[in-house]
TrEMBL record:
Protein name: NAD-dependent succinate-semialdehyde dehydrogenase
CDD domains noted in UniProt: ALDH_F5_SSADH_GabD
Keywords associated with the record: Oxidoreductase
Pfam families hit by this protein: Aldedh
UniProt keyword ATP-binding, yes or no: no
Active-site positions on this chain: 232
Species whose genome carries this gene: Kribbella ginsengisoli
Record-annotated Aldehyde dehydrogenase domain positions: 3-442
Length: 449
């Protein structure tokens, strides 16, 4: 088999070569998953739960190793990498607890002639496709519920970050996951591998996390077999600050919502709507924090070009750069940047930045601001900072987004249903909803006459 190179974004050096999987490897992975499925699907829920719990413990115990791997291939800071390891392990703990809650329903028909028993079956072999920005968590957010439900999986990690997925697969084997239950195919020809899976009748589920652009393609391909799909796609999160918000708290939240993972998060605040009465104060405080912020590198040279093009266009349209943070001379870096005098129609406001740039829009009229907030094909995350909870909730309820941080800059939580409205996706991950994505609902209609 041929191989492809994995790079360290901070040094641009090659750090590993991994197998370059082909269509034949994709089919071999499904063969293994198909062989393992009958036993895993009928393994007692408690036994599956204990394997998942062990996986949680092993990931936590191996935090330093896994975090170092994430930093090496993704470039994120050590602190962000450790936080990601804890977050990714948590999916195994949460779904080990959900695996044993095998709920169903029992009812009777209105006329009384039948009894209805509703149950949930594992959907079958699931194809999982994940991005590079959270190489551990985006994989475990799918693997944990799939295994809890009794599914076996084939996983294609992003070609930029295959090492973390391979390390997680090893940890799962050590935790007692049987051979064939989790099968990783690394490749730099994603379409070849994923198309093979989508065309294979034995694959019953696609769970994809990545861009809306690739999501469109995979949804079209999935239509041919009416494949069960879960899509976690792009975002364009608004961050709203009202006139009476606690500005210290809003700036602290903005730093997390914008700069966690260097802005390379689907949930990253992409456009700031700050009330005109507090605009200068907010910009001064946010700018002071940005001046000191050293960001991690972006994932690639192409990503740096993309972010810098968005900023250049915004400046050409009339925006002003008020603050920038420090960056090293080498590596794929773009500095933390604050932009003011931004208008809602600018490209930087309409597209996902996926980098450490914060564009600020000023507002006075709440309805006008909400219309601008909702004028987007995306609807993943949003953030609201307001002094009165009822104002925050009124605004939150008006936003077309699946997740709203209310006076906080993070929404991610394995126990909450993560997902988006509109073109940000279909379905939810985490919580009980995440388990349901890997189950088929079945009912038995029982004669009662
Ligand atoms: N909603 C969420 O939960 C969530 C989480 C993380 C990232 N994202 C989104 O992911 C994007 C960034 O990640 P990315 O750049 O890795 O996304 P991407 O869409 O380029 O790639 C995602 C995955 O799809 C694969 N892929 C690419 N082209 C393909 C094709 N033609 N056929 C099959 N597979 C293909 C990639 O190799 C990778 O594994 C952003 O838009 C971000 O918002 C969303
Ligand atoms: N930020 C998201 C992942 C998307 O990038 C998360 O926290 O799960």
């Amino acid at each position: 088999m041929t191989s492809f190179a994995v790079y360290n974004p901070a040094t641009e050096a090659v750090i590993a070569e991994v197998p370059n999987g082909t269509a034949a490897d994709a089919t071999a992975a499904v063969d293994a998953a198909a062989k393992a499925f009958p036993d895993w699907a009928t393994t007692a829920p408690r036994a599956r739960a204990e394997v998942l719990r062990k996986a949680y413990e092993l990931i936590i115990a191996g935090t330093e190793n896994l975090a170092a791997l994430i930093t090496a291939e993704n470039g994120k800071s050590e602190a962000d990498a450790r936080a990601e390891v804890a977050y990714s392990a948590e999916f195994f703990r949460w779904f080990s607890e959900e695996a044993v809650r095998t709920d169903g329903e029992y009812g009777s028909s209105p006329a009384g002639g039948t009894r209805t028993i509703v149950t949930h079956q594992p959907v079958g072999i699931a194809a999982l496709v994940t991005p590079w920005n959270f190489p551990a968590a985006m994989a475990t957010r799918k693997i944990a519920p799939a295994l809890a439900a009794g599914c076996t999986v084939v996983l294609k990690p992003a070609s930029e970050t295959p090492l973390t997925a391979l390390a997680i697969a090893d940890l799962l084997t050590a935790a007692g996951v049987p051979e064939g239950v989790v099968n990783v195919v690394t490749t730099d020809s994603p379409a070849e591998v994923v198309t093979t899976w989508l065309a294979d009748d034995r694959v019953r589920k696609l769970s994809f996390t990545g861009s809306t652009r690739v999501g469109h393609t995979l949804l079209r391909q999935s239509a041919d077999r009416v494949l069960n799909t879960s899509m976690e796609l792009g975002g364009n999160a608004p961050f709203i600050v009202t006139a009476d918000a606690d500005l210290d708290s809003a700036v602290a939240g903005a730093m997390i919502a914008k700069f966690r993972n260097g802005g390379q998060a689907c949930t990253a605040a992409n456009r700031f709507f700050v009330h005109a009465d507090v605009l200068d104060d907010f910009v001064a405080r946010f700018g002071a924090a940005i001046d000191k912020l050293e960001v991690a590198p972006l994932i690639s040279a192409k990503a740096v070009t993309g972010v810098s093009g968005l900023v250049d266009d915004a400046v050409a349209d009339g925006a002003r750069i008020t603050n920038t943070g420090p960056v090293p001379a080498d590596g794929w870096y773009y500095p933390a940047t604050l932009l003011v005098d931004v208008e809602p129609g600018f490209r930087i406001v309409r597209e996902e930045i996926f980098g450490p740039v914060a564009p600020i829009i000023s507002w006075r009229d709440e309805q006008e601001m909400l219309a601008q907030v909702n004028d987007s094909e995306y609807g993943l995350a949003a953030y609201v900072y307001a002094g009165r909870l009822q104002d925050a909730l009124r605004i939150a309820e008006s936003i077309e987004a699946g997740m709203v941080g209310v006076n906080r800059g993070v929404v991610s939580d394995p126990a909450a249903p993560f997902g988006g409205f509109k073109q940000s996706g279909l379905g939810r991950e985490g919580a009980r909803d995440g388990l349901r994505e890997f189950q088929e609902t079945q009912f038995f209609s029982v004669d009662w006459t």
